[in-house]
Amino acid sequence: MSTQRGMAAVVAAVVAHVLLCHVAGEGVPAVIVFGDSTADTGNNNFIQTMARGNYPPYGRDFAGGVATGRFSNGRLAADFVSEALGLPPAVPAYLDPSRSIHQLASGVSFASAGTGLDNVTAQILSAMTLTQQIDHFRQYKEKLRWAKGEAAAHHIISQALYIFSVGTSDFLQNYLVFPIRGSEFTLPRYEAYLAGAAAEAVRAVHGLGGRRVKLAGLPPLGCLPVERTINPDRPGDCNEMYNMMALSFNARLKRLVGRLNWELPGAQLEYVDQYSILSAIIARPWEYGQSYPVMHLAS
Ligand SMILES: *[C@@H]1O[C@H](CO)[C@@H](O)[C@H](O)[C@H]1NC(C)=O
């Protein structure tokens, strides 16, 4: 148990390290986060949804052992990124009424567990869509202008580090489970549709003044604990078909990043390769402080 707990923290920290490449030391005033359960620091506590992470064992390794709504034993990658940039060690949730706009000025998460690039994914668990998250960002920008003044708000918005961490639920909670999208789209067409939605979200943030944007690719979907457990062919092992899907979608995201950097003036958009780093940890856990294979369920 305790080694698995330690491992989750290592994974978040290593992903944070990848997210940070090319950023550290450039004076980032805020970390601004969009996405799903990998990035929700507590927003879902304040909306009507089943997707909640505000009860034990969530948060048992968080400061004070508090279940904050993060879907983690401890902090999320965005929290480590914030700390590494000299900002607070935990990124507050936008919908948390106890946070003032002054506290949110150095970082905020608009993410909502269970959401996807596809609006239909968000509907399944009544999560906030990316469009709603960006509406909140627009509202946040207005509040910053009132609270900090035009120049300071402009500085924060234009120099902040934006992180998008979303897409896993579109496959695991939507396309591969429900026939709604499966009957409408072939897999390549659905991938193209999702990439279009990602482009729409990045353009919206750019239109509101965001420039430094990290777009996280999918993790090895087939190696997530739940997918290993229900793997029909080899229970306990990674589902290689799902991993192929993730790789295929990630290749599309990488091409998209290239196109958007060319299209959007001043954009510094980067693709974040979560797939490789997580695969490396799963394949060689001992190199990351683990003495036995991570999440190994078959015994
Ligand atoms: C999701 O819905 C909003 C409006 O509610 C729309 O503007 C947006 O384009 C939709 N996203 C996708 C990917 O269809």
Automatic annotation (TrEMBL):
Q: Which InterPro entries match?
A: GDSL, GDSL_lipolytic_enzyme, SGNH_hydro_sf, SGNH_plant_lipase-like
Gene3D superfamilies, per database record: SGNH hydrolase (3.40.50.1110)
Q: Name one Pfam family in it.
A: Lipase_GDSL
Top-level taxonomic group: Eukaryota
What molecular function terms (GO) are annotated for this protein? hydrolase activity, acting on ester bonds
List UniProt keywords, sorted A-Z: Signal
Task: List the signal peptide residues.
Answer: 1-25
Give the family per the record. Answer: Belongs to the 'GDSL' lipolytic enzyme family.
> What protein does this entry describe?
GDSL esterase/lipase
Species the sequence originates in: Oryza meyeriana var. granulata
